[in-house]
Amino acid sequence: MEPKSSSCLTAMMIGALTPGKCRVHSLKNYAKPENVGAENYYCRFEYKADIGELAPDIVAVHCKCEMPYNPDELMVKCEGCWER
Q1: Which residue, 11, 42, 67, 81, could crosslink 24 as a Cys pair with Cβ 3.0–4.6 Å?
Q2: Mind telling me which InterPro entries this protein's record contains (predicted)?
Q3: Long-range contacts of 48-52, Cβ-Cβ distance < 8 Å, separation of 24 or more
Q4: Where are the domains of the chain?
């Protein structure tokens, strides 16, 4: 299963191209069971329009391959780490 979205921009573009509505949640809220569904997407960044920046400016990584956490996949060990 591929991630539904890694940024708000991607989620907004998907929502604009998909009939119906989509909901974009923070990464923390996306993990709640009531937010799991085909119309739900996550965003790891928030755009602060008043200062023109994304927050947070860094993303925590949770693997030896230094990839960020993907809530759409069970992350025990990624394919890259299996090869190490």
Answers
A1: 11
A2: Znf_FYVE_PHD
A3: none
A4: 8-59
